[in-house]
Design brief:
25% of the residues lie in helices and 9% in strands. The protein is of the alpha+beta class. A five-stranded antiparallel β-sheet has the order 1-2-3-4-5, covered by helices on one side. Strands 6-7 form a two-stranded antiparallel ribbon. A hairpin with a 6-residue loop joins strand 4 and strand 5. Helix 6 runs antiparallel to helix 7. The structure holds heme C (6 copies). The site of one heme C (HEC) has 15 residues, from helix 7.
Length: 268
Amino acid sequence: MVIILVLSVLGLNAQDHAGKPVPTYVTGDECLFCHRVKVVDTWQQNPHARTIWPNEKGEEFIGSKLARPLRKAGYGKFDILAADKKTWDKEKFANRCAGCHATAVDPETKAFATTALDCYACHGVADPNHTKDATLMRFSSKYPKNAREIVSVCGSCHLRGGKSHSSGLPYPNNFVPGDDLFHDFEVDLAQADNEKLNAGDRHVFANVRDVLKNGSSSTCLSCHAIHTDSSAKHKRVLTSAICQNCHNAEGPKSAVKKYEVHSALCEY
Ligand code: HEC
Ligand code: HEC
Ligand code: HEC
Ligand code: HEC
Ligand code: HEC
Ligand code: HEC
């Protein structure tokens, strides 16, 4: 009773959708039909809309910049070109990539509903009444800002190296925005102190740990804007330990430590 009360005050239900059917959701075409200004102009260039993308010939690639070849293999499935650049791997995409680069992966079949990331990946199941009451739409300017909920959504893909307890896969089991990611997705937060990890991935772990363990209200969205693909506002955030991933403890912030992003999971 008390637990339920506390969680509802926090605005997060302890539920997750691990192993359950993918919920019905409003697709991006429908959202964009109404949201013609602002979002529609920039969406096609957003890296989240290009996690998988086709060229003029209709050949598909994973990675907006690195462009590793994929090949259609039936509904919701891809083969991926192996590291030898000659053979096609038929298992890897579904077992190791789909959950973070495609939308709404079915826990039973591991088939995705749409390539790349649809609005649903972050905004979740949209309430049709949000047109009159923006508090009903996750990430609207009026939606309550709950730090654990925000890092659950962004962390559902950006905590690379985590593992779903229920499926054993390296991506969350049917995560739906609003769920508590950390119910089923096991993450080693000590990666926040791993000097060998690149600063790109490390600061993600550092921020998630600050929220989960230290009650921080600064989140990914204090520093990143999604629809303008910009981290300009990070300069206005109060200096704390997380800044040292990229800046020195002393001296001007104009000095930025160089780092290159690599990932064993994503194979680059
Ligand atoms: C846990 C979620 C997750 C899984 C699973 C995952 N990725 Fe990624 N991938 C990401 C995220 C997040 C990024 C962006 C990281 C960044 O920019 O710092 C990314 C980036 C990439 C990039 C670089 C994008 C670019 O072009 O700059 C490639 C290529 C890639 N992933 C391929 C793969 C492949 C292939 C697999 C499966 C073998 C895979 N990923 C599995 C989350 C994941
Ligand atoms: C990767 C996560 C993510 C995806 C995918 C995403 N959004 Fe957003 N959206 C956000 C966040 C976070 C905000 C809050 C403002 C910001 O940080 O940019 C937002 C804000 C908005 C806003 C209100 C702010 C504005 O600029 O007018 C609209 C409308 C919107 N999103 C529509 C969409 C639509 C439509 C799609 C799909 C085509 C989509 N979003 C896909 C994360 C996402
Ligand atoms: C039937 C038309 C319609 C559809 C479909 C629709 N929206 Fe909206 N949406 C609106 C209207 C009208 C508003 C309120 C006016 C505004 O703020 O733009 C709104 C508001 C929003 C806001 C809040 C903007 C702010 O002020 O911060 C977001 C975010 C948003 N919608 C995202 C979405 C997403 C994501 C989808 C698809 C899952 C979607 N909408 C589908 C019409 C629609
Ligand atoms: C469903 C998975 C998923 C979710 C949810 C998600 N991202 Fe991403 N994000 C990715 C992948 C994959 C990439 C790399 C895309 C590429 O370049 O191919 C990426 C790229 C990025 C980048 C780098 C953009 C660039 O310019 O290279 C930032 C910053 C980012 N995401 C922040 C966020 C934030 C903040 C949230 C939460 C509001 C979020 N993401 C939610 C998967 C996701
Ligand atoms: C204190 C501010 C801050 C916080 C909090 C923060 N970031 Fe970042 N992040 C940055 C800055 C600044 C960059 C570098 C942008 C650039 O190079 O232009 C960055 C880079 C990134 C990149 C791209 C990595 C690369 O260089 O390829 C991703 C992806 C990302 N952040 C995701 C996230 C996610 C997800 C969260 C939340 C868990 C988060 N960030 C929290 C400031 C922040
Ligand atoms: C993931 C890496 C990353 C993190 C974490 C990060 N920064 Fe930055 N910061 C950058 C990069 C890259 C630039 C240079 C590009 C730019 O101006 O956006 C920068 C530039 C700046 C600048 C402008 C400096 C100048 O004189 O031009 C300020 C101020 C700043 N950061 C403050 C902060 C603060 C405060 C924090 C912690 C709350 C922080 N940064 C965390 C990567 C990061």
